[in-house]
Amino acid sequence: MKILVAHDGSDYSNKALKKGADIAKKENASLSVVNVVPDLGFTDELGDDYTKTLYSTLTDEAEKLMKGIKDDLSKSLQDVRTEVRFGSPAEIIVDIANSEKVDLLVVGSHGKHGAKKFYLGSVSSKVISHAPCDVLVVK
Question: Quick check: pTM over 0.85?
């Protein structure tokens, strides 16, 4: 069994990570964790230097987060992978689920920038709509 957890550093994604890791332990499954540095879209107005610095900072933070997660999970799971990608979070998550033939995708109900509301966050909603596998949404 292959499990993919989408993680953006939010409380919801921490809960999703815990749930995904618990399932991976019980099922002796492989666990992949992805953090997608979003394309913010407004960077043309900010200038190249500022844009490069912004994305460099976001990528460095994401890589540190993924390293910490891998180090922590490797103590209790044998097959753990982490990665950082750049682009549209929902599209990247669904692409990975497709290309790696993921059996279960675990996401938080809201992301780092999602408002707490009755509706699902935009990324989790898009992932549910387009994922090729089962999706577990964690609140």
Answer: yes
